[in-house]
Design a protein that fits this description.
By secondary structure, the chain is of the alpha/beta class. 35% of the residues lie in helices and 27% in strands. The chain is built from 6 helices and 12 strands. The protein has a 9-stranded mixed β-sheet. It has a 3-stranded mixed β-sheet with strand order 1-3-2, with helices on one face. A hairpin with a 4-residue loop joins strand 5 and strand 6. About 5% of the residues have low confidence.
Length: 242
């Protein structure tokens, strides 16, 4: 009886090992993509980018997803392609257990709009990236005049960041203009004067000096007395009367 049990046990063990070895040698079944879940995050709700635009970017780069074997989908490549698109700041792509591909996209956030004398019309974001999207009208500071792209993405971006960081300036400054001599002037919402900054040096200091004059001077003198207020020269506030 013991001999029979040993033979049966050995037979079952051999059968199990054969089945297991065959299972290990076989490749696991590969599923196909059942769909794509795409989420575009626009922190300020400007509507610069939508799902259709993202799918068009993938299509133009020959990337198909739905119905494709999951093993053939390169999520890292998809992220690289999407992050090359000017309106996209970050992209994340991954596969799920349910044979879905999920894509999360963070849209760039424009800080201001440039409308220069050479006909250029674009937005600039916080990273100094030019966003070619002139057809969209956003309630943001507008920069006009003789402003080059390099100036817009450096000095003007610095100035706009100073303005947006101060609630007073954020409400007061309506437009920034660059003269032919590359001097910066600002148009306030309240008052009939221009604010002259001169060149792009020491912008933080100039804006602080201008703010102090507004707070201590114009609040008692009145905002309609001058045609221009200049902080172009170090340590000075030069005003021109009507």
């Amino acid at each position: 009886m013991k001999k029979i049990l040993l033979i049966v046990t050995a037979t079952l063990l051999i059968a199990y090992l054969v089945v297991a070895s065959v299972g290990l040698c076989q490749k696991p079944a590969v599923g196909v993509c059942q769909g794509v879940e795409l989420r575009v995050r626009d922190s300020l709700g400007y509507g610069l980018l939508d799902n259709e635009q993202v799918f068009q970017v993938l299509k133009r780069n020959g990337i198909a997803l739905e119905g494709v074997d999951m093993s053939l989908i390169d999520t890292y490549h998809i992220e690289e392609i999407l992050q090359q698109y000017p309106l996209i700041e970050q992209a994340q792509c991954y596969k799920t257990a349910g044979d879905l591909v999920k894509i999360k996209v963070l849209c760039r956030t424009p800080l201001f709009r440039v409308r220069s004398v050479d006909g250029s019309d674009y937005y600039v974001d916080a990273h100094g990236t030019v966003l070619e999207h002139s057809g969209l009208a956003l309630n943001l500071p507008v920069v006009t005049g003789h402003v080059s792209r390099s100036m817009a993405c450096s000095d003007i971006k610095t100035l706009v960041e100073i303005i947006l960081a101060n609630p007073f300036w954020r409400d007061q400054i309506e437009q920034i203009d660059v003269t032919q001599n590359h001097e910066i002037q600002m148009v306030p919402r309240v008052g009939a004067h221009l604010l002259m900054l001169g060149d792009a040096s020491n912008l933080q200091t100039k804006m602080e000096r201008l703010y102090n004059f507004y707070e201590k001077g114009l609040s008692t003198i009145g905002w309609e007395k001058y045609t221009s207020i200049s902080v172009a020269f170090e340590g000075q506030v030069v005003c021109r009367k009507h």
